[in-house]
Structures are given as structure tokens and as C-alpha cells.
Amino acid sequence: MVRVTYGAPRRQKKNRYFKQARGFRGGRSKLWRTVRETLLRSWAFAFRDRKQRKRQFRRLWIIRINAAARQRGINYSSLMSGLTKTEIELNRKQLSELAIHDPAAFDAIVDQAKEALAAR
């Protein structure tokens, strides 16, 4: 009897994998076992890094806000505390963008936060 090899579906699956592995170096794009291992790892990294991207952007925004706030004589935690007391609800991304692209508006926000902290 003839051994079943799942010819067409197997070839289609391999072709899908090889297509995704284009651009990889050496055997990582040419050898079936290596391609499979590399793609499984890359999918795992992609899943993990979709979560980490959000964390990294938040860290970046906080660093930018802190740097801009320190130039204006207040640190990050005091600024955020002052903003909650004045009920200014801007997220970190918006604050970061204001600090970079509209320093005058950021100055006004920092002044309001300072006033709220001084009024304790």
C-alpha cells in the first residue's frame, strides 16, 4: 500500500511558513525545521512585545514629562499630584506631546499644578 504523505496540504503549509520566513538569514529561510523553529520563536516574541510596547511608551512619556517638569522647577510626582488636585485629566501621552510641541500650554498646566500644591 501507498504511504499517505498529505501531499498538497503539507506543501501548502510549508509554503506558507517559507513565505513568512523570507528575509531571514541563512538556513532560517531555507531549511524546513529551522524555519519552523524560528517562526515559532518570532511569533512568541511578537505576542510578548505587543504587550511590552505599551509599557515602553508609557515609560517614555513619563521620562519626557519628568524632564520637562524639572526644567520648570517641579518633579514628576508633584506635577501629577497637582494635576489630580486641580482635576485636570490629561493622560501621559497628551502631557508628553504638550511638553514637546506646545511649551506655553505645558507651562500653564505646570503653574496650575504648583498653585494647587501651594494651596494645601
TrEMBL record:
A Pfam family the protein falls into: Ribosomal_L20
GO cellular component assignments: ribonucleoprotein complex; ribosome
The keyword RNA-binding belongs to this UniProt entry's keyword annotation: yes
Keywords: Ribonucleoprotein, Ribosomal protein, RNA-binding, rRNA-binding
Gene Ontology molecular function, alphabetical: rRNA binding; structural constituent of ribosome
Keyword Protein biosynthesis: no
GO biological process, one term: translation
PROSITE patterns cross-referenced by the UniProt entry: RIBOSOMAL_L20
UniProt cross-references to PANTHER family, sorted A to Z: 39S RIBOSOMAL PROTEIN L20
HAMAP family per the UniProt record, alphabetical: Ribosomal_bL20
Family: Belongs to the bacterial ribosomal protein bL20 family.
Function: Binds directly to 23S ribosomal RNA and is necessary for the in vitro assembly process of the 50S ribosomal subunit. It is not involved in the protein synthesizing functions of that subunit.
Protein name, entry field: Large ribosomal subunit protein bL20
Native source species: Rohdeia mirabilis
